[in-house]
Every structure is written in C-alpha cells, then in structure tokens.
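Fold it.
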Amino acid sequence: MRSIWNGAISFGLVSIPIKLVNATENRSVSFRQIHTEDGGRIRYRKVCELDGEEVPGAEIGKAYEEADGTMIPITDEDLAQLPLPTAKTIEIVAFVPASQIDPLQMDAAYYLAANGVPAAKPYTLLREALKRSERVAIAKFALRGRERLGMLRVVDDVIAMHGLLWPDEIRRPEGVAPETSVTVREAELDLADALMDTLGEVDIEELHDDYRSAVEELIAAKAEGALEVPAEPKKERGGQVIDLMAALESSVRAAREARGEEAGTAGEAGEAPASVTALSPRKKAPRAPAAPKETGGKKSTARTAEKKTTAASRKSTSKTTGKAAEKSTAKKTTAKKTTTKKATPRKRSA
C-alpha cells in the first residue's frame, strides 16, 4: 500500500519512524455527468471571475474571505513559517481507556507502518505496551495543512490510528430528543431485550452493500445492450396498524425463524408473554341498549311479558278487524237483496 505521509511517532524520548497508510477505501460506484442529448462529458473549468479566462492549476492559490468579501491571500510559505511541532511528528500526549473516547469523534482511519529496520524494535515496544495496558494513545499530528487529533490502538499486529474531531467540533444534541413525555412498560422492554438478544450476534464479514451490487448489475446489463433491466420486487410491508407490543413480538418471532430457531414465546425467560392485539376499526354505537339476560341464557320476565302483551294485542286487533269486516259484508249483501227485490216488477191479477 502506498504511504500518504512520512514522519515519526514521538513516544517520550523515543522516536519511531513510520509511514502513514490509508486503512479504509471508498467502494461506492461513482458516476460522471454527461449531456443527455448526445452523451458528451460535462467538465468543470476553473475560470477567473474578473477576466473570464481559464486558469491552470499552477496559478491557483488560496485566500481567506472576510465577511465583506475581501480576499486575504495566504501562501504556502506563510503556512510553513508557522510554529507547528507536529508537522512531521505524531506526538503522543496521553494514554487513556478506550471507553473515554466518544465514537462521535471518530474520523478517518490509518495504519502506521514501521519505516525501516531500526524502527521495528520501538514500534513493537509501543504495540505490546498498548496491548498489555488495554489503553489507547491520544496524539496530535498534522496532515494536509492542519493539525489534527488522533487515537492509536492495536489491530492484530499493527498500530492503527483513528483521526478524531476536536471536542469543539462536536455539536450538542439540543432539540433532537423527543419532547413528548412517553412511558415505556416493562413488558415492552422485555420484548425489546429479546429482540436485541436475537439480533445481537452477527458476523461482520458477511455484511455487504446490496445497493452497490444492484448498481453494478445495472451497469453490466446496460453495457450488454439490455434495454430494460428487471427490477427486484419490493417487499411489501403490512398496512395494518398494530400496537408496539405486536410489532416487537412479531419481530422477535421473525428473527428467530430467520436464524433457524423455533419461534417460541416472548416469555421464555420466565416473564409472562405479552398479549398481542391488533388495533381494530371503531364500531358504530348500537341504537338501543340490549335487554339484560338471566343466568343460563333465559330471557328476562319483563321482556317475555312484553312480548305476550304485544301478541295478545295483535290477536285482539285481528279479531275486531275480522268481525267488523264480516258485519260490513253482511250489510252489503242485505242491501243488494233489497235492491233486487225493488227492481223486480209485480204481476197484475187477471
């Protein structure tokens, strides 16, 4: 691997010549900007805004811009004259437990390689001292024109250095936490613990960038002349609204099934399993309250009496209506007979 910086580790009165090597790399797929009409490459040119002419890299310097827009030129010679003791030295200032380092401060990572045979002995001494003490070294170093903070630790048989942000570069998390007061039940915490236990172990080497793989397959398909690339069907997530307990319990069950374990219940550790209830839609209120029921499923006496009274009333009405109808029919029949008699002429005697 190519070194990006040469210097030495200052360990008290011990100086260890080292080379700085990048420990990480960016594997994401990069794209170029093109003209969509003809596919021509889009390039950026550095142009002076005063004369409109393109400026070569050799004629480009740096300057500090004031609030009013005034530019103050700063040359490399100006910066070289500044007192910077860490310009070529990684100066160790303290040894502390790794737990004192806030992960928010972590920045780029580097490997420190011993530079030459004479550096092997002091390099190994520092590495073994870090191992035995179970601590990390805090150091200051200069890289790319600025002084930085670093943390040295042992990775396998190599000393690695993590660039650290300065404490004043870490923002305070003000206004980030939820403002609403929320109460978490013990049963919910138990299910969360069960889910953490199920998902807590993983081989980090097996994890990979699925999106990058999909982009590479897309590029390969396009290069072979495929007009359309079949898209992988998206996994649909249930639209049913469930409560938090149901979501946690379902997550634990799915995680165990994915690991080839039996689903089991959430209460394996001795606690009672939490009930899972899906939120059902609201039901319309009944028009009238239901009548009380007696033990054994028998209807109440009041309701029975009410039904009997209603039935009797219906029978009485039916009888009255029937009698009235019969009388009306009889009257009509009598009237017809009378009319017939009147209409028949009487015979005269001889």
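The first helix runs from residue 76 to 80.
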